[in-house]
Amino acid sequence: MQYSIVCVAAAAGLLFGATTATAPADKPASAPAAKPDADGFISIFNGKDLTGWDAKPGWWYVEDGALTARSTPDKPCKECNYLIWTGGQPGDFELRVRFKLVGGNSGIQFRSQRRPDWDTYGYQADMDAPNQWTGALYEHARGKVSGVGEKTVIDADGKKTITAIGKPAELIKAMKTNDWNEYRIIAKGPEITLMINNVVMCQAVDNQKDQAARDGIIGLQMHPGPPMKVQFKDIRLKQEPVAGNEEKRNREPGTRRINGARVSQ
Question: Per-residue pLDDT averaged across 178-183, rounded?
Fold first, then answer.
């Protein structure tokens, strides 16, 4: 998420113990077509290298079977960069990702736009070490779309109607600090649900004209700030047929035509 937080980090050697890591691989390579499992999910990370992902040089690598990025006092991160999946721009889907965050904050971009220098713009399933934003739906243009414990319905003009679906302090107990957790992102039409460890954290129904996106890239965030380490593994994606025909989709909020191509805004 694009915001500054104050975080006291332990010494880098305590936060980030020595582990076996493969050498960084900065240039994306095409991934072979994966076969769906019995539940319809495909693996979009091979657990070995950055095949199928595009990384900013010097930041992302594979460590212990996980996509990894970290900053240290000797190597601070001064601006966001994202590890971008090159396999498509999913519309309606379910994404399951195991993640581990130590210090700082990070997030999972989806239905987002790619921007120069490995930047992105769009929806984010948020996470941060203090768990002030973990489980919330963030978006670069509008900030918080839906907070933890909320179902937020946004009409075409951007008006929000918020209903409580749980107490944030209780929901966040599902999160295991400095350990592995699973994010589930379910997007279908205007409806978005974020879950952590099988607990629904927030929901949104986004119909805002010229803001709501219906498809886009997937990316993993390396955030500037205090020393941190983030890892992602067991990344599985199930794409669903989009309801309605192409002409209907072209008229949906958050999409427009550029030179004949449909582009999420």
Answer: 98
